[in-house]
Every structure is written in structure tokens, then in C-alpha cells.
Fold:
Amino acid sequence: GDGVLILDPQGRLADLNDAAQAILGRRRHEVAGTPIGGVLPGWTLARLQEGAGELTLDGPTGPRVFEPRVITFQRGGDEPGGAMVLLREVTERRAAAAAIRVSEQRYQQLIENAHDLIFTCDLDGRLLSVNRASLELTGYARDELVGRRVTDLVAPANRDRAALAFTARRR
Structure:
């Protein structure tokens, strides 16, 4: 689960949950009264409150990435009462997103560099994307093809049959 750190008004650790103890690799009694920068090097309460990006901590299996969130609370009136810092681990999500980006780039390169005419179209048969071979085989520029109906590119003698094929796919 998420690590939860409770800070006093001066930004010192007052308490932390079991998940936070596991994340930090330190027990509650070891860090009580320690300024936040003492357990999250380079971080201050002000930096956390600004939403200053992600936090990377070394773990036993390598770097772990967290999205810190801060909820401040007040004692009475406008007097600061401290803050609660939530540490949500996003290491796996970030790694998965990076893997998806790499996969999408490979897919795009495969499609773009294929020697076959490859295109995507919407349900109405309008071209959404075309690869380089499509441009070479048709003689059109990309901006001349995208948005046109596939049936506009079919020989007049075969247009009715092509239109029927798209209509049948929609049902």
C-alpha cells in the first residue's frame, strides 16, 4: 500500500505507517522527530507541497519511483497543524508505460517501412493513416490521402463493390 508519513508543523516526522517504514527501510522510533529531508534527502515540506515531481529512492531491488502527495491540516484558525505525506509507488506503472512507448515505436517503424500498402480507416472508410508504401504506390502525398474515402481511390468499375464491402463490415 501507500506509505503515509505524518509531519508536525515544523516538517518533522511525527508518525508513519508500516508501508512507509518498509519504503524508508527504517522503523518509526528511529525517525521520530527527524526533519523530512533527513528521510527523503533533498526534499522539504515546501517542495512536497509544490508537487515537485516524482521521488526516487533506492530499494533492495533497485530504484523505486514514488508520486508524493501532501495534505496539510490546520490546528485552529490559520495555525498550521502539520501535514500528511502519501507515497504512492509508480515504479511498475512507469516501466510499463516506457515499454508500451518502445513497443509503439517499433510497431510504427514496422508499418512505416513495410513494402506493402498499409492503412487504417474509420468505419465510414475514411483514411486515418497510411504508410510510406501507400504514398509510393499511389503517387499521392500523405496529406492528400488522409481524410479521403478508400473508395475514392478504387477504380470506378470496382467502387460499388468496395463500398458494399465497407458497408457489410459496419453491420
